Amino acid sequence: MAGDDDYAAYASARWPSLVRSAVFLGSSVEEAQDVAQTTLLRCYVAWKKVDRARDRDAYVFRVLLNCLRDSRRRRWWGERPTERLPDAASRDVTADVDVADAVHRALSGLSKVNRDVVVLRYFANLSEQQTAEVLGVALGTVKSRLSRALAQLADDSHLLDLTEGPTS
Amino acid sequence: MTDTLRELWDQIDAGLPPVGDVSREGDRVRRRRRLGMVVGAAVTVAAVAGATAVVTGANDRSEPAPSVSTPGWVLDPPAGMRWAGIGRVVVAIPRDWSTDGPSCADAPSVNSIYLGTNGGPDCLATPESVMSVALFPAGSDEAVELIDESRKPSFSFTSATVDGVEVLTSPGVCATSMPGSCIQAIVVPTLGIAMRLGSTGEDFSAIAKSVRILPEGWTTVPFTLDAADPVPGTPIEVGVTAEVVEPVVRPVDLPTNEWEPGDQGLLAKLSGVLTFGDDGCVRLGEGPGAFVVVWPKGFRAETRGGALVVVDADGREYVEGTRLTMGGGFVPNRSSEGACLPPRGAEVASIQSEVEVTGE
Q1: Which residues of chain A carry a pLDDT beneath 50?
Q2: Which DSSP string corresponds to B20-66?
Q3: A111 in reach of chain B (CB within 8 A)
Q4: Which of B187, B183, B33 is nearest to B117 (CA)?
Q5: Which of A26, A46, A166, B66 has its CA 20 to 30 A from that of B156?
Q6: Which residues of chain A lie closer than 8 angstroms to B22, CB-CB?
Q7: How far are the Cα atoms of B84, B86, B99 from residue B77, in angstroms, in the given order?
Q8: d(Cα B327, Cα B307) in Å, to the nearest integer?
Q9: Number of helical (H) and strand (E) elements in chain B, helices listed first
C-alpha cells in the first residue's frame, strides 16, 4: 500500500534523529531506541493522521516527547532489583554508555525546557516554528529559551571540559 | 560549543530502523482495536437489554448514583461518589470524573477513569493536578504483566480478601525522576483484572481502599458503543455473568463510487447519523429524511451481532448511530445494480471526500 511505503521511507529516514534526540533528552541509548520504536509504532497506527498533519515532523517529535515522558513513568516503576544478571551475551554497549554519559553531563546544566528547545532546534533540525508547535509554546518563547540555553552552554564547565580536553 | 555536542550527536549509534517490526506490531494493534470495538458493542447490547434504566441513570450526573443491591448484599457509593470499574471489580470515584480517557498514552489531562488500552499521540502538556484510574481487562497485556509482578516479592504487593476474593495492592509510590508522578497498582488475580491508580501527587489512598468485588451475577458495562474509544462502566445486574462472544458477522450491500483520497470531488457538505434500515439499506439520517449514499471506493459494510459497521479503505470503522460528515453532492445514479439505489438516472448522494466522525 502506498501509505505503508511512505511510512517505511519516513521512519527509516527519521530513526537516527529520533534515537539521538531521545539520548540528548536524557535517555540511555537502549532506552532511546525503545522510545523511538514506540514513537514510530504510535505513528504507524495513526499514520493517516500523521500524514494529514500540517507539519509531519512537528507531529512526530511531539509524539516522541510524549513517549519519553511515558517511558520515564514506567522506568521507575519497572526498575526493580533482580536476583541474578542475565546470562545471554549481548553486544558491547560500553561505547554507547560513554557517549550517552558525555551527552548527559554536557547538557546537565540546562533545565528541561531549555534542553528540549536546544535538542529540537539545533540537533533534530526543526525550525523555530516547528519547535514551538512541538512544545506547545509561542515562537517568542522558543527564541528566548534558545538564547538562555546557549548562554548557559557557553559557561558550562562540563561542556568546557569536553571541548578543551582534560587538563594536567 | 554546539560543535562539540554535534560530534557527540554523530557518535550515537542509533542502530538500524526496526521498520518491519514496527509495522507488524502496528498491524496487530490495529486488529486488536477493531476487535475491542466489536467486543464493546457486544457487551453493551447484552447488558442493556436487562438494565437500560440503570445505565442511563448512571451516566446522568443529576441522578442519584445507583447502588448495588442484591439479596443479602448492598453496596452504596459514598456521598458524591459512584461505582465504576471493569468486570466485577469496582472502585468509588467522584461523580464528576471523566470517562473519556487520556488523549495520550498514560496521561489524562483531567480526573478520569478509563480503559488503559486507550491512548493516542496527541497531547504534550503534563497536567498540573490530576488523578486517574486506568482499568486493564482480563487478558490484556497490562493486566497480565501487573498480575505477574504482584507475585514477585520485590514488588511488595500486600494481599487482602475483599468480598471473598483476593485483592493485591502495591505500595503507592512517586517517581523521583518525575516529580508529581505517583502510581499504585491493584490486581485481582482470580478475575485476571488490574487497575493502575495515578496522580500528580494527590493522595489516592481513599480510592485504593474503596475497591470492591461485585457479587456473582453482576458486572460493569461500557457507557457507549464507540469501539475505538471504549469507556468503563457502572455496575448493573445482568442476572447471569456476562459472557462475551464473537458476534455473527454478515456482509451488507454498500454502493460505492470511484472516488479515492487525493481525487478532486464535489464539495457540498453531507451530514447525518449512520443508520441501517429494516430493508437492509445503509443510510444517513433517520426517518423520512434519511437518504442512501454512494460511498468512496474501497468502503464496505457488515453487521456484527446485528449492529451495522461501515469500514473504509484503510480499515477505519464507523458504527451505526455515529454522526458522520463528509463532502460530496447529488449526481445521477449510473448503476442499475443495488436494491437500495434509486432508479438509474435519478439523483443519489455521492460521497467524494474523506468521512469524518462528528458525533454520536
Answers
A1: 75-76, 78-91, 166-168
A2: HHHHHHHHHHHHHHHHHHHHHHHHHHHHHHHHHHHHHHHH-TTSPPP
A3: no
A4: B33
A5: A26
A6: 11, 37, 40-41, 44
A7: 10, 16, 18
A8: 25
A9: 4, 24
* C-alpha span between B275 and B286 (Å, rounded): 7
Q: Is A53 on the interface with B (CB under 8 A)?
A: no
User: Closest to B14 (Cβ–Cβ): which among A16, A70, A72?
Assistant: A16
Instruction: Indicate the residue of B22, B107, B177 with minimum beta-carbon distance to A76.
Output: B177
Alpha-carbon distance B246 to A52, whole Å? 34
Mean pLDDT of the B266-287 span: 84
What is the per-residue DSSP string for B80-134?
A: TEEEEEETTEEEEEETT-B-S--SBTT--SSSEEEETT---B---PPPSS-EEEE
Half-sphere exposure of A139 (CA within 13 A, CB side): 5
pTM to 2 decimals? Answer: 0.46
Residue B309 near residue B317 (C-beta atoms within 8 A): yes
Between helix A139-154 and helix A128-135 the angle, nearest 10°, is 100
Element (H, E) at B251: strand B249-252
Position A76 scores a pLDDT of: 46
Q: Kindly tell me the sign of the dihedral angle through the C-alpha atoms of B324, B327, B329, B332.
A: negative
**Helix, strand, coil percentages for chain B (3-state, nearest 5):** 20, 35, 45
**What tens digit of pLDDT does each residue of B112-170 get?**
777 765 333 334 344 556 788 888 887 776 788 788 888 888 778 899 999 889 999 98
Q: Which residues of B touch A29 (CB under 8 A)?
A: 12-14
Place of cell 475497591: B211
Residue among A36, A72, A150 minimizing CB distance to B178:
A72
Tell me the shortest Cα–Cα distance from B3 to chain A, in angstroms: 9
Q: What are phi and psi of A107, to 5 degrees?
A: -100, 5
Residue type, A47: W
